[in-house]
Structures
1.
Amino acid sequence: MYDDAKVQAFSAFHDLLVSPEVRMDAQEQYDELLRLVDNFRAKGIIDQQERKALIEVATVAYARAVGAEGGA
């Protein structure tokens, strides 16, 4: 059960990371990714180290999206 929950959590994170909702801008996507990560941690699905790694992934994706929006 725990492994299934973790697989589903990582899958949900990945899906949102690569395919945000149509009307979702970079900030909204980032906020939602952080909310997911905190929710996974609160439920005990991921540990603190995994939480940190997912936040780093979300932050890099946000920085790239904002850079791309700025015309970089």
2.
Amino acid sequence: MMTYKGYSGQVSFDDEAKIFHGEVLDTKDVITFQGRSVDEIEIAFKDSVDDYLDFCKEHKEEPDKPFSGKFVVRLEPALHHKIYLKAVQSGKSLNRWITDTLTTHLTPNR
């Protein structure tokens, strides 16, 4: 995974064409890039993000960043209840308990 200016890029290698190709993940807009070496793919990723941001600026549009910090999760009622009870027992709100639990599980080396 590559990151630049708050955007993430995922890269794969096409062994038939002998080329790396990637896509910027943090936007609903389609932003792709390619290169024949690690150095080329890194430069192409950064150039693509910069081109996208320049395009948005020139057209007076906000760059797409679809992550508001809110998302809806549908659960079985019994699981919802168990999570609620865990949150109450730990003295936290449901949102805080879920955020803390996800952070713990997503933090490297834990």
